[in-house]
Amino acid sequence: MLLRIAWRNLWRYRRRTLITASGMAIAMGLVLAIACMQDGMFAMMSDVLVRQTLGHAQVVHPKWPTSQLMHDTIDEGIVTKARQLPEVNGASGRMFVYALAASEDTSVGARFIGIDPKADRIITDYDQQLLDGKGRFLSDEAGAEVVIGAGMAHELSLEAGQQLLFLGQAADGGMATELLEIVGIFESGLDQLDRSGAYVHLSTLQSLIALEGRVHQIMLVGEDVAGSAALRDAVRGELGELADVQVNSWEDADPDLAKMMGMKDAGLYIMLFIMFSVAGLGVLSTMLMSVFERTRELGVLRSLGMTRLRMMLMIVLESLLLCGVASILGLVFGGFLDWLLIEYGFPYATADGQGVSFMGVTFPPRFYGMLRPEPIVITLVFMHLVAFIAALWPAIRVARLRPVEAMREH
Predict the structure, then answer these.
(1) Residue 122 DSSP one-character state
(2) 0.85 surpassed by pTM
(3) Which residues, at least 6 apart from 373, have a Cβ–Cβ distance to it below 8 Å?
(4) 166 and 173 in contact (C-beta within 8 Å)?
């Protein structure tokens, strides 16, 4: 009965109800759309930074994370052991060597990354990184090949098919030099890697610096980023007896990135607070106006025996029903915006048509959204909470009405 009265009261002032509900619906739709775009952005960052750069977990020498010296290596045979674990979807050894990359006219400092192209393909889709018409990636068979970043190619004025000189120092103290054929040019989205990164065959790099059978890092990939801790623990259990081996999740390897990725919902809460603080003022204004206009009527109800608690509950129900109408409209509006973002994306390019760079990551010129149920649930709960709080003042005012004085109001 009380619910039916509250519903009828809500539509006695149809225009005001629709205006308030529409405002709340627009706020809700915008919050859902921004959350959808933000989730898509973080998903892309997770793929580029975590899966392709850090892996879900890593096996390294205990000194490697802090020193990154050439001799801080581990046995390459650990790769085979790791692949046998059911939690591991992919494992690949890598070697990192700083050296000079030189053309006939100039040279630049470079970080050569030795990889096993066949094993590493499950971790990183290198074909998508190659620039159109700029060659291919490393062949599965070892050879004197190199794939360089677009920034390095520009600095050295080199193209696919030309040669690059590797000039560095081997682990035994001797000089390491080799002419490498540039078979492709890549653009990863990581600015530093594109400017100074170069991929070579792992066995070729091991021979150059006299560290055969050794690697600096073994990258591990499991089902998803969320399972990185379980993957780390499983590998630790398998390799626990080995000395000079440390297993880290990607959170352990880059705590700052983990903190940033863990704060992705913080932006949602900030948006909710701003949007619905304004919307809450609208609900408060609507309910107060409704109470002022019905003071005489409310006094009559009080004099007929309606308790203060039931009168307060009636006002709160009106506010929550108003919020329910706004929620339906907001879900429709927000769902439409989310569909546009997921299907067509959002253009976010610079004046030259390139993607925006942020924290070393070059985003594609168009964002695509990703839908999660959590932001929808959080938004609905927050919205109804705001409506409830906004109704308390008008409800308390109604409960404190004196029937005789209220019935004198006109």
Answers:
(1) T
(2) no
(3) none
(4) no
